[in-house]
Recover the amino acids of this structure.
């Protein structure tokens, strides 16, 4: 029997094991700021092209039903809710890049992707 929920930490670790950088969008259906960020920052052509060009896997961590595995990752970063965004380098010895809380811009994401290359 397969588990009904997927452990977000395992999903992230799996992509990193494949040599991919991972952008995680911690979001929820009721989160208006999350929807705005998705529209004006994440789903822009520039960001989507940068994800493809830089081997970035996009992962949605849907916290609508307060998934315990997502709650654990949020707590690791001192967060009690969404929106929240992390960019994990493929290199597991490097910590994830954390974005400011609340509104993010396409520029914030592109800047973080540039930092992965250093």
């Amino acid at each position: 029997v397969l588990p009904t929920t997927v452990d977000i930490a395992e999903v992230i670790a799996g992509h990193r094991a494949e040599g991919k950088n991972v952008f995680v969008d911690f979001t929820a259906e009721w989160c208006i700021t999350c929807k705005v960020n998705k529209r004006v920052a994440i789903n822009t052509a520039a960001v989507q092209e940068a994800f493809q060009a830089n081997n970035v896997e996009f992962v949605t961590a849907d916290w609508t039903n307060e998934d315990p595995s997502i709650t654990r990752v949020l707590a690791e970063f001192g967060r009690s809710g969404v929106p929240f965004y992390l960019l994990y380098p493929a290199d597991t010895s490097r910590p994830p890049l954390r974005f400011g809380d609340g509104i993010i811009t396409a520029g914030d994401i592109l800047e973080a992707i540039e930092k992965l290359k250093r």
About this structure: Residues 32-42 form the longest helix (11 residues). Helices lie at 8-17, 32-42, 45-53, 68-76, 106-116. The radius of gyration is 14 Å. The beta strands are 21-27, 56-62, 84-88, 97-98.
